Amino acid sequence: MAEAVLIGEQIEDDEVQEILKTGTDLRQYAAQIEKEFKEVENRSIDDYIKESQNIANLHNQIGNTSNILERMESMLMDIQDALNNISTEITSLQKKSVSMSVQLTNRQSIRAQISQFIEDMAVPEEMVSCIMDSPVTEKEFVAHLNELNHKLNLMKELNFKESKSSQDVSDVLQKLKIKAMSKLRLYLMEQIYKFRKPMANYQIPQNAMLKYKFFFEFILSNERIVAQEICNEYVDTMSKIYYSYFKSYSTRLGSLKFEEAVSKDDLMGLDDSGPKGIFSKTSSLKNKSTVFSIGDRGEVLNQQLEAPIIVPHAQQKFRYAYEALFRSEQYALVDNACREYLFVTDFFIVRGAQAQELFNQIMGKTTALLIKNLETYVQDCYDTIALFLCIQLCFRYQLMCHKRCVPALDKYWDNLHAVIWPRFEQVFRMNIQSIQDCDPTKFPKETGPHYITRRYAEFSAAIVGITENFPNELVSHMLLELQEEVKCFMLRMAAIFTTRKEQLIYLINNYDLVLGVLMERTRDNSKEAEAFRELLSTRSAEYVEEILAPHLGGIIQFVKDCEQMRDKEQTEELKRQERRSLQLVANFSANWKKSLEELNREVFLSFPSLLTGSQLLQLALAQLVQYYHKFYKLLTPNARAQLVNIHVIMIEVKKYKSNF
């Protein structure tokens, strides 16, 4: 029993374990199971025997089904063969369809080309009638002319290929071309002849020609000789018109010029104050200062640059400076030349060198006339400002032409510069030389601003103001030369005065005049203004020392001596200066108010400019207070007690403070 339990623990099968637990004999149980298997087998055999007929029937049915499937397979194979034949037929039909489609496309394409060719070659009766009878300005004529031009170009291509098809219509097209050319030539010639009518506004026929510019294009592409004839006629006509107009206009403008011309006697350094002899030549200008001051003449470069031109017969009562007349003349040329250049490039279909050549043929005589007139004026011109304004006008009008996309006048502007620049430089240097040749002893001894200084100030301000936007190295160099000569002239003039104070007064008055004019007319930071500002500052400081010397000379010298002793650490020597300082204190205390009054009177009598006098007085008073402070620090306590209180002096100094 114990052995059965041990075996049961080792066996995992639940049913076997259950049997073992009940204590059943395994041999008996196995025999029983074997018996049951036999019974089940026998019953199964009986079942098969019972169903044998059905199984046989099933076998027969399976056989029949297999036969049916074989027949279906045969049928499907036949269908597959039929489908293969159909696919072959479809492929063949596709190839035939593609071939027929290509044939159809080719026929349609050649049909369109042949139709277009026939249409291009055919000459409709309507075209013939319109070309022969209609006016050239009719829309129908222009449309048929374009069509005729197309047919003529096609005929040229066919003739080049030696095509026989063009021979059928060649005669008709040639006759139509000749008729059209005749009518177009007549129309364009009529428009050109309209330019020749007196007082004609040639812009009207020009606009009419531009409206039908295809006419010239048609003539140019079909008959170059006729096109050249029309072009030559236009060039000849317009050349004469422009030449006649500008010749008349320049002559009439010349009558509006100031009668008083600037001459060689109007140079900057020439003396116009001395007595004149019986045979001496008087100054050509009533007011010579206008030669060197620009006034409102510079407006020709600004507001008047594009102002309407001067109409001589309407302005007979007025007189103008040369640069104003030059501006009007050049602006008229720019306006006409730009319009003409744009017209010829558009109408005659030319570009680049061809356009320049055609433009020169039209405007060449006119520009040569204007250059010659300028040469005539320039050779006797001594008006440096007028010459320089003309140069600047050339620069500005050249830029204007470039903005209008007209480079045709570039050579003309270069020629004008070649005429004006040498004369401008020559006259400029003549003015410099006139300053060099000045003899200071021939001028009156006056400490006020010299008229040559004023001329220089006005002239320099004018040139600097003009060149602010268009600087030029040559002009800057000549201005520097002139500035140096004027400085030397001022020093030579100052040398004729016997005292240093008079020399300084003269220099300060003249430096101040130049600086004032430059600051008024130009930028404050210009090189010329900076140079004279530095000179004025240096001379002003020296002048202050000069005018303080009579009143504070002892104190100034005392301060300088004591500062030297202090720097050298000479203490004993400093102590011995007390007696000297007491005398200076007593003298200053007795006279300081009177000294202030005399300083004030002297300064304002010496300088015509109240602003300059006020600035110098304030500078002198500031220097006086500064020396007073230094003097106070160097005094002994005993001397300080006797000195006037600094606050009292400051109150008195404030009384001389100016409101300028």
UniProtKB/TrEMBL annotation:
Residues 236-544 form the Vps52 C-terminal domain. Residues 47-219 form the Vps52 coiled-coil domain. One of its GO terms (molecular function) is syntaxin binding. Keywords: Coiled coil, Golgi apparatus, Protein transport, Transport. InterPro entries: Vps52, Vps52_C, Vps52_CC. Residues 69-96 form a coiled coil. GO terms for cellular component: cytosol; GARP complex. The keyword Coiled coil applies. The keyword Ion transport does not apply. It is found in: Golgi apparatus, trans-Golgi network. GO terms for biological process: endocytic recycling; Golgi to vacuole transport; lysosomal transport; protein transport; retrograde transport, endosome to Golgi. Pfam families: Vps52_C, Vps52_CC. Belongs to the VPS52 family. This is Vacuolar protein sorting-associated protein 52 homolog. It comes from Anopheles coluzzii.
